[in-house]
UniProtKB/TrEMBL annotation:
Its EC number is 5.3.1.23. This is Methylthioribose-1-phosphate isomerase. Pathway: Amino-acid biosynthesis; L-methionine biosynthesis via salvage pathway; L-methionine from S-methyl-5-thio-alpha-D-ribose 1-phosphate: step 1/6. Substrate binds at residues 58-60, 98, 205, 256-257. The gene is mtnA.
Length: 354
């Protein structure tokens, strides 16, 4: 069956979120970091769907890449009967795992295009595995390119401090990271004084994942409560707020982790640059504006408790949207591997993404 090419994870720079083995996919269980590095091995699309739903693996690009591997696993383990129906069902199941990150649907569409060209199960198994690895490698390459594009926008003449939100590193992507990739590049070029990392309640991607990734690479990081971001920007040493994205619409509105919108308002008030870094797989030109983006709401227990420890009265009503939408008017630059949209608007988005 498929002799998948060398998985990019073995060549990825720094931490990786997943490891591809041809007949199985290993996922680093991000729910347990930083206390425990535990890998889960999945052999089918259902297992990948469950891991996406449960946020074992999370981050818009990483969701797309793992879903692509899920389709490849569906072909690899399909029975001899109606293999096409099995793979179609796998794609439907993966598409239902989380609603906001368009990278998931972008990756599944890429896999479907390959699937429809296959005439045998053996051909499907080989070609879908190769496409999934290509999607992974393309994402890593995009992250490396975006870091260069971002530094051309920032053009720092001396080391700068930045603030970031959530986790947009190797754990959220095919490696290196989007906004965190920019931070890695600043550090590599000795142009980084400090990264302020929002803890990013309620799921704590900042304190548990970003702080962990940066510490692993000896990158200077200061963890802060989300509520401290305003005071940090008021101090005046932060030059840019740099964040990722889960979906960017045709007019430049950006859906990203809850709390991003308030950071954009703060940045504009304090005359700090606000930069969104995301691969073109995050662009959704089919949606006119951010109001069209489906915003995932997760269980209230994620706010009421941490690891089963209650933080609020039992059963208290919770509003837990895990993304919000930042209007294009508050964004100074959207950086992708294809180029940069400054002061994003529908014209600038169409010029770059058609
Ligand atoms: C480069 S990751 C993009 C995006 O995904 C994260 O969401 P989640 O952790 O819920 O999957 C967060 O919004 C990041 O900014």
């Amino acid at each position: 069956m498929a002799n998948s090419p060398l998985p990019p994870s073995s060549r990825a720079i720094g931490t990786v979120a997943m490891r591809w083995h041809g007949a199985s996919l290993e996922l680093l269980d991000q729910r347990l970091l930083p206390m425990e590095e535990h890998w889960i091995t999945v052999e089918g699309a259902s297992g990948v769907s469950q891991c996406i739903r449960d946020m074992v693996v999370r981050g818009a690009p990483a969701i797309g890449i793992s879903a692509a591997y899920g389709v490849a696993l569906a072909a690899r383990h399909a029975g001899g009967g109606d293999w096409k129906a099995e793979i179609k069902q796998a794609i439907r199941e993966l598409a239902a795992s989380r609603p906001t990150a368009v990278n998931l649907f972008w990756a599944l569409q890429r896999m479907e295009r390959v699937f429809h060209k296959c005439h045998s199960l053996d051909e499907a198994s080989k070609r879908l595995a190769a496409e999934a690895v290509t999607i992974h490698e393309d994402d890593l390459a995009a992250n490396l390119a975006m870091a260069g594009n971002a530094l051309e926008v920032m053009h720092p003449e001396a080391p700068i401090s930045v603030l970031t939100h959530c986790n947009t590193g190797a754990l959220a992507t095919g490696g290196y990271g989007t906004a965190l990739g920019v931070i890695r590049r600043l550090h590599e070029k000795n142009l980084l004084t400090m990264v302020y990392a929002d803890e990013t309640r309620p799921w704590l991607q900042g304190s548990r994942l970003t702080a962990w990734e940066l510490a692993q690479d000896s990158i200077p990081v200061t963890l802060n409560a989300d509520g401290a971001a305003a005071a940090i920007l008021a101090q005046g040493d932060v030059r840019w707020v740099v964040v990722g994205a889960d979906r960017i619409t045709a007019n430049g509105d950006v859906a990203n982790k809850i709390g991003t919108y308030s950071l954009a308002v703060l940045a504009r008030h304090h005359k700090v640059g606000f930069m969104v870094v995301a691969p073109s797989s995050t662009i959704d030109m089919s949606l006119a504006a951010g109001t069209d983006i489906p915003i995932e709401e997760r269980d209230g227990s994620e706010v009421r408790e941490i690891r089963g420890i209650p933080l609020a009265p039992e059963g208290i009503k919770v509003f837990n949207p895990v993304f919000d939408v930042t209007p294009a008017s508050l964004i100074d630059a959207i950086v992708t591997e294809k180029g940069v949209v400054h002061n994003p608007n529908i014209t600038g988005m169409r010029d770059l993404f058609g």
